[in-house]
Amino acid sequence: MVQRPMARKSVLIVSNTNDLHALAVRRELAARGFPVHLLACDRLRDHLLTSGFGSEPFLETEGGRVETAGVSTVWWRRPSLDQRLPEGALDEDQVHFVNANCKATLRSFLRGSFTGTWVSSPEATDRAADKLHQLNVARRLGLRVPDTLLSNDPASVRAFHRRHGGRVIIKAALNSSRVFLATRPADLDRISDAQIRAVPSLYQEFIPGTAHLRVNCFGTDIHAALIETDALDWRPDINVPISAHRIDAALQKQLIALLEALDLRTGVMDLKISDRGETVWFEVNPQGQFLFLEPLTGQNLLAAFTEFLLRA
């Protein structure tokens, strides 16, 4: 039996202008007959918002006026809060002022006026972006994680490197939206103490193996892909064998528990099956990319995520 859309079910997608995931999900929701609005929050000057005493808060999107009291779900997708401004219209200090105030007012507006379901809340998303916090929570829940050091102390980093026989990788503590930083081996013979001191980084034991897992967790709905490559970081080259993969019930239960512990509704997780057959958990991206896997695995991830949003 085909279920009819609920009359007041409405989704607000908060993202940026060029987010293909946001655009695809908006189209899918609209095709199913659900009210959906996309707020491109890097262009707030084109999306007016109003909240005052004694009146219903509302905002204007390309799809028209939206009263936040009527929104059921906010998908806090990938809000880029640096504004797209006319080139040369403002000086550097003015740009900083505009960006800071747009960030503060958008969050304040939604926190003060929206009472539905967040996927996921800004606070939970920000907290879960902390990679060391993720690892500590995963470890506490019984997942195998790599031995990890966060440091910019050369002595500590070099001692960690020796303890693991030089088989150590280095990764950024926080991903940058402006620069792609691939995970890479930590060759400390070519890294000076001054470079180590410059920025605290995550150093981890190297996990040997060629079986990488990309696990899309849409609530309790789990879709995993197996990526077979001997590359340390598979992201720069996906011209490798990729297929749908079933993970066992015990691991699924742990991953769902991890989402709940991080107060996340959804998350994209990276794991690896080591040469010894041990499944090692690396990290979760609260709003990771998943649509690229559809043509590679045959999984209908767009439909799965859309249905998850409608259940949220």
From TrEMBL:
Under SUPFAM superfamilies, the record lists: Glutathione synthetase ATP-binding domain-like
Name all ATP-grasp domain ranges.
Answer: 135-310
Which species expresses this protein natively?
A: Streptomyces klenkii
User: Do the record's keywords include Nucleotide-binding?
Assistant: yes
Ordered alphabetically, the record's keywords are: ATP-binding, Nucleotide-binding
The molecule here is called ATP-grasp domain-containing protein
Q: Which GO terms describe its cellular component?
A: cytoplasm
Fetch the PROSITE patterns from UniProt. Answer: ATP_GRASP
